[in-house]
């Protein structure tokens, strides 16, 4: 029995050993099949070989399973549980122990064979799947490479058919740009295909499958061709865009003809033009013609009145830019075509050039006149940049662009007012203070560029805004009717615009009259007629420059005409002249009349006459306050009557005074009151001195009457009588002057005492209110009273001296 068992066990162990050796050899053979090839042919060959290999392994499966089952059956019959014992020398092994050792050996061999079989079969399956995936990806790569090669060949054919950019027509540049962009978009699929094929190659590399040398070279070649094609497209597009920018319809290339040798027009990086004089080796922002124009404008600096000086300068600019031929309707159409509707939108230089080019092309078409478009566009752009972008940033708001062109175009002044108002009005046709201040700010930049802004209220437009909103008191926004009503009064900040229209209207006017100064006949342009003297007419050159005839003084008021006078106007002027003959100079001083509306307010309720007597639509009124004989410019006139330092309505004046007084305590106010009382005592002392002189002068009235009633014939004391008479006349004149000064001082003294009395009452009220915590409520009234006291005191002292 034992012999039979041993024979069976020997055969089983031999079979297990053979299986182990065979599985080990197959495992090594499977490992030798790596790596997987990098092309379709190699992978297909490896796949076929692997299939034969798997069939061979699969054919040994039944035998292996049968041997493993026999081993399991043997181990079931002869289990071993005791640990293996070590036999001592000379001791025999029992049969039972020998069977246990054999069982243990079979168990070990069966486990090894089973593990090797499972591992080999699993590796075969994984290798088969890996080969299938690799083959699938290689097939995809191969198909994609073939497709991309065809697409790249077609694209390269299109690229090779491109004409050189230098041979293209300027008008076709934009079409070629669009075609190149479309071609670039069509190659999006090629771009995605190249990305996909590179991703597949990357995935194969991760799975330890490297493309073959042939596939690698083909893929690198495709990538190289694609990069070259992309670079060609980008370079072509850049060349076309640069050519379109430099030579296309929207470029500045056509403006290079606006200058002549030795000048050259150049462009800065922000597209702003500048000019190079190669002869003098200098550069400047202004066009050579613009420089000549500014030099010619200096000839108008001898005009005494700022509004007329500014208007006549703008008239020359208007003519130089040919804007006197441009209608407002044409401007509106150009603005709509160029989509320039939002006033706060910022334009660049290219957009300005597009708009100006379209404007002058329309002018040439509508008026059928020959226009040097490059020169006009360059000059107008130069002027707009000087006014609204003197720093040459290359940016300008649409509202600024419109304001400059509308102000100088050929249109009725009322239509200009309406158009400009609508640029800042809301959907309901209303505009608030912020938008109106923006409009006036853009307008004031025009005289500012000419250096005349001080005469028009300065750059601060807040007084003008408040003045306009006084037409509609209590309303947060105004309508166009309110704006037109205010503009009809010719406010100080905007008076240059209607004067510009009168200057334009007067250019072609001839008056059948002779100039009182230079004897020009007929008078061309403005005609100025004295309403104080009969038959005194002056031409615009003599009047505006202040030229007079030696020994002949011009008397005011004066009426201005910019259209021929009618018989009714002549009769009206005759009646006014006759009436003014009986009025003294003091009358006109007390009743001043201005040709504009001052934008700065006056003190308290003592309002001055601010509106001029505009007799008709074709005349303006001048008063003695603007007399050239006294060398008094309108700027000085404004300072005399409406100094901004005393403007209690202006925000800066009010806040400065309030801030100053809020930091003053009651002791400082008392010191101010004491100083004013001391000045009052000085005035009273001067009053008593003048009264004493007056009484002294009254003591000789009889002598004066006797001297005047005498025959005046020479006698023994004739020489002495003549001296007494002369002295009496001097004393009588002095008496008259003293009486006048006494009356003025008396009036000032009464006003000062009234203001001081009111100030004491307010100080007492402030002292009482401070105890209750509301003393600040009297600050405004105290400010006004102190200012009035200062004015009364200063005017009283000036009268004294």
From TrEMBL:
The keyword Ligase does not apply. Residues 510-566 form the ZZ-type domain. This is Dystrophin related protein 2. Pfam families: EF-hand_2 (PF09068), EF-hand_3 (PF09069), Spectrin (PF00435), WW (PF00397), ZZ (PF00569). One of its GO terms (biological process) is synaptic signaling. One of its GO terms (cellular component) is synapse. Keywords: Cell membrane, Coiled coil, Membrane, Metal-binding, Zinc, Zinc-finger. It is a peripheral membrane protein. Residues 659-693, 735-765 form a coiled coil. It is found in: Cell membrane. The keyword Membrane applies. Residues 257-290 form the WW domain. GO terms for molecular function: zinc ion binding.
